[in-house]
Design goal:
The complex is a heterodimer of chains A (155) and B (291). In chain A, strand 3 and strand 4 form a beta hairpin. Chain A has helices at 22-29, 85-92, 102-115, 121-127, 138-150, and strands spanning 2-7, 10-15, 48-51, 54-57, 70-72. Chain A has 5 helices and 5 strands, in the order E-E-H-E-E-E-H-H-H-H. The longest helix of chain A is centred in the last third of the chain and has 14 residues, at 102-115. Chain A starts with a strand and ends in a 5-residue tail after the last helix. Chain A has 155 residues and is of the alpha+beta class. By secondary structure, chain B is an alpha+beta fold. Chain B folds into 3 domains: 8-54, Uridine Diphospho-n-acetylenolpyruvylglucosamine Reductase, domain 2 (2-Layer Sandwich); 59-174, Uridine Diphospho-n-acetylenolpyruvylglucosamine Reductase, domain 3 (2-Layer Sandwich), CATH 3.30.465; 179-286, CO dehydrogenase flavoprotein, C-terminal domain (Enolase-like, domain 1), CATH 3.30.390. In chain B, a hairpin with a 2-residue loop joins strand 12 (194-205) and strand 13 (208-217). The A-B interface holds A 1, 17-21, 24, 40-43, 45, 48, 51, 54-57, 60-62, 64-65, 67, 108, 126-127, 129-131 and B 1-9, 11, 32, 35-36, 39-40, 42-43, 52, 54, 56, 80, 103-107, 109-110, 190-191.
Chain lengths: 155, 291
């Protein structure tokens, strides 16, 4: 079926099977491989993207459900010459090791800071509690988000 | 790689449209709300509908509001919306307690209240919360709406009274004076299903328990409720001994089964302890002694 969705500000029209998952539309059809395909069971959060105003796990959303909606992926978070404060925070605080969980972590962090510009470490941990860092680098991820909050928070 | 089997897709524009589509496709169709239970089931072929009726466009069903002495919750309300609802927290602290420990913040953004209830997982949290609050479910079908008590809603694991051409549209909870409520859950890790959980509501006159509601999940309680313990509490003074005894009665009357989350005797222990703790919290809140 034909769907029209806005991804990172650009409009895309595609003819897709209803069973296609949003993560596969983004990666395989649109070539946006920043969103990662991890556990496939909505546990790990590597596939987190924004659907309209909120982060969702895109391995558990059908692409047809995004018809007429806005999707934001890590590619839409910032640009190479103008990084989002969250991206700078991850760079400054060594917030990533292998990088697999990073796009999802950053999209959740951006959402958290938009709602709560000055979170406590506990609030950051709660916000990312549905996401797994396979390097177990949580300490620096929390530091990176807190750094972003202190340095330009809302972007 | 897990992908659902081939499926047809229809987008419902309104409740009436959804019901018309459901009536047309019958048991071949499943309602798609947040999809956070259904899509994983489809990936595993535990569910294999031929048609999905997507109700995400029916934003009329996204609300939490107070009408007279009823809190009304539209079934397309996302878990995150219920957790953010001030009016829900003010009157039913149990709902915020429960929502805080349902899945994780990202899943709560898209998963819906109605979806969780209709999935009818025997370990689902809101089913116990609504059983404790003695809520009413409003179900809409081709012949109009009907109301069913929360305790008559589930007919077994993954089974509810919602017919193939019906849609659960609202849950309403009565607000009564002297009330307090709370929810207590033990799970193995953040975001997991409960090993056991209990929700409790009490309505006090002075120190006397006029009425009590106890919901239990994941421990094999009939209709997610502990009716014998509620009966015991009615008319008693809300003392520590009384609440502990109610926990014991609740544990004696449930039938937990061993699984990967824990052995049956541990779950029975949780039923007792968590019922007592939830009652203690509910009583403290009814007295204005706890937030």
């Amino acid at each position: 079926m034909k769907v029209t969705l806005t991804v990172n500000g650009g409009e895309y029209v595609r003819d897709i099977e209803p069973r296609l998952l949003l993560i596969h539309l983004l990666r395989d059809e649109l070539g946006l491989t920043g969103s990662h395909w991890g556990c496939d069971t909505s546990n790990c959060g590597a596939c987190v993207v924004w659907l309209d105003e909120t982060p969702v796990k895109s391995c558990t959303v059908l692409a047809v459900m995004a018809d007429g909606r806005r999707v934001t992926t890590v590619e839409g978070l910032g640009s190479a010459d103008r990084l989002d404060p969250v991206q700078r925070g991850f760079a400054e605080c060594h917030g990533l090791q292998c990088g697999f969980c990073t796009p999802g972590m950053m999209l959740t962090a951006r959402w958290l800071l938009d709602r709560n510009p000055d979170p406590s470490a506990a609030e950051v941990r709660e916000a990312i509690s549905g996401q797994i860092c396979r390097c177990t680098g949580y300490e620096n991820i929390v530091k990176a988000v807190l750094w972003a909050a202190r340095n330009g928070g809302s972007g | 790689m897990q992908v659902p089997a081939q499926v047809e897709y229809e987008k419902a524009a309104s409740v009436e449209h959804a019901v018309t589509l459901l009536a047309r496709y019958g048991t071949a169709a499943r309602v798609l709300a947040g999809g956070h239970s259904l899509i994983p089931m489809m990936k595993l072929r535990l569910a294999q509908p031929e048609v999905l009726i997507d109700i995400n466009g029916i934003t009329d069903l996204c609300y939490v509001n107070l009408t007279g002495t009823q809190l009304r919750i539209g079934t397309l309300t996302r878990h995150a919306q219920l957790l953010d609802s001030q009016v829900a927290g003010e009157h039913f602290a149990i709902l915020h307690d429960a929502e805080r420990v349902i899945a994780d913040p990202i899943v709560r953004n898209w998963g819906t209240v109605g979806g969780s209830l209709c999935q009818a997982d025997p370990s689902e949290d809101l089913s116990a919360a609504f059983a404790a609050m003695k809520g009413t479910m409003v179900i809409h079908g081709p012949d109009g709406s009907r109301e069913v008590s929360a305790r008559e809603f589930h007919t077994g694991p993954y089974e509810t009274v919602v017919g193939p051409s019906e849609l659960l549209i609202e849950i309403s909870l009565p607000i009564r004076p002297g009330g307090g409520s709370g929810y207590q859950k033990v799970s193995r890790r953040a975001g997991d299903w409960p090993v056991g959980a209990a929700g409790a509501a009490v309505w006090l006159t002075g120190d006397v328990i006029e009425d009590a509601g106890i919901g239990l999940t994941a421990v094999g309680a009939t209709h997610f409720a502990a009716a014998e313990a509620e009966e015991y509490l009615r008319g008693k003074t809300a003392s520590e001994d009384t609440l502990a005894r109610a926990g014991q009665i609740a544990a004696e009357n449930c039938r937990p089964v061993a699984d990967q989350r824990g052995p049956a005797d541990y779950k029975r222990h949780l039923a007792r302890e968590l019922t007592t703790r939830a009652l203690r919290l509910a009583v403290a809140r009814a007295r204005g002694q706890a937030a």
